[in-house]
Amino acid sequence: MSEAVEVAFYGGLGEIGANMASVEVDGRIALIDVGLTFPDAEHFGIDLILPDWSRLRPRADDLHCIVITHGHEDHMGALPFFLREFPGVPVYSTRLTLGLIRAKLEEHPDVEADLREVEAGERLETGPFDIEFVGMAHSIPDGLAVAFHTPHGMILHSGDFKLDQTPIDGRPTDLPHLAQLGDEGVTLLLADSTNADTPGHVPSERQIGKTLRDVFDEADGRIVVTTFASHVHRVQQIIDAAVEAGRKVCFVGRSMLRNMPIARDLGYLRYDEDDVVELTDVDRGSGSRAVIICTGSQGEPYAALSLMAAGQHRQVQLAAGDTVVMASSVIPGNESAIYRSINGLFRQGANVVHKGIADVHVSGHAAAGELKLFHNIVRARAFVPVHGEYRHLLAHARLATETGTPEDQVLVCGDGDTVQLRDGRVTRGEPFEPGRVYVDGLGVGDVGNAVLRERGKLSSEGICVAVVQIDQHSRITEEPQVFQQGVIYEPNQASLLELAAKTLAEELARNHGENDPAVVRRTTSTVLGRFWKDQTGRRPVILPILVEV
């Protein structure tokens, strides 16, 4: 019998985002998703957050392939950064997902990519991997579950999914295929946990269409609808409602302008070119009859809707009589930004329709009732909940035991955990340090937790800069100069800085004007740190600068 099969989790467990796992068979490694996550308020200046895949670097020759379950950023957004380090690793996914990946790779022209298209229902043998793909309904078309047939049993990863029986594209989650896998015997199930603590079933996406038509019929002025640029089904319903109401549509926002033509060219979105206008023509040709479909549903600072809410969009100035529809969910952590946008929209005079008052959004993730049905169909011998915060993972673990999975084979894991399959049974393996890699501008991985702590201190306490002039013999030549930023703002600021400089000069003079540069820096930090604490109760960052004259 071959070595045990190992599954390792690099991201997506105990969090929403950065989904990435590996399956190792006979010394070869396949990855399931390579996603990213977005920064929170404590990630000062960070643009993107990636899983830490440094554990794979010594084994680059063992990387065999990557499977991407669907085209959301938290599942495929880190792929360009990964392929820069591991060029040429084959990437398998469906047509729409690969189309979105290609568009993303255009922003990374130095990255080599070997993209290979697969379809739901297909079975693929490559190296030691026997992989089967199952069609799953989600909030983006072409989603997949992935089954790995291994010498020690079948591993089934659900991807993100829900059990919408009437999806917009007519392709529901393939329950017969899942039942067939269940009959064959699923040894280990890894399944989406995002809505595991939400009772019942998620309504069908189709119900959004009726709400949109009602809102559009009642609206007098322009209509702005914001949603995720990947939510092709939602955009299709917005377009259909607009055309039915005799309105033109206009795509606004970089990702919306990029994704919609791709979805249309690949056959996942239907609209007539005559029904689409450019933003520059909205106030002229179509006037108040326009429906603007834009990004910014999460209150992103520079997204189209956020700029409209602040009255800073160069081409769209909202006014009384305009209607804004926020056809999206509230991602945890974005609440304050979203409510800030809603308040700003009301200040501009717009009527705002959101999930709290109308059926303008349904989730793309299965709720508890659907998950129970899913578990009863698959009937896995062992289960690890994935894709969710810790509370979601625990709730999903309880659902698994309620539907018959043995309690000792339900393993709640976190990032950095591993499990092993041997002879049809699952056990915990050796954990590793998962880590995170921060993308800041052009830098990837050059900002760590220490830098973030420094940025946090700068943001909360400010900075004090002390300039000390010394000659070639390390003697102080003039009284130091002290500056501050973000520490105080008051009329007597100048006198306080003068006092700080005088206090520092007196302390340095006690060394008879002769100081080693290291001693000067240390003395400056100590004296000014104590000065600000005594005078203001604050502890700014002290930056000593020695200038040789």
Describe what you observe in this structure:
This protein is α/β, with parallel strands linked by helices and 549 residues long. It folds into 3 domains: 5-200 and 363-444, Metallo-beta-lactamase, Chain A (4-Layer Sandwich), CATH 3.60.15.10; 207-353, 3-Layer(aba) Sandwich (Rossmann fold), CATH 3.40.50.10710; 462-548, Ubiquitin-like (UB roll), CATH 3.10.20. The protein has helices at 73-76, 79-85, 95-105, 175-184, 207-218, 232-244, 254-265, 282-286, 304-309, 335-347, 368-378, 390-402, 449-461, 493-509, 517-536; strands spanning 5-11, 20-25, 28-34, 48-51, 63-67, 90-93, 114-117, 123-126, 129-136, 143-150, 153-157, 186-192, 223-226, 248-252, 290-294, 323-326, 351-353, 382-386, 418-422, 425-428, 436-440, 443-444, 463-470, 481-485, 541-548. The strands form 5 sheets. The protein has an 8-stranded mixed sheet with strand order 7-6-5-3-2-1-19-20. Strand 9 (129-136) and strand 10 (143-150) form a beta hairpin. The N and C termini lie far apart (75 Å).
Which features characterize this protein?
549 residues, Metallo-beta-lactamase, Chain A, 8-stranded mixed β-sheet, 15 helices, 25 strands, 24% strand
The order of strands across the largest sheet is 7-6-5-3-2-1-19-20
Low-confidence stretches: none
Helical fraction equals: 25-40%
Based on DSSP secondary structure assignment, what is the total number of beta strands?
25
The fraction of residues in strands falls at 15-25%
Number of domains: 3
Describe the largest sheet. 8 strands, mixed
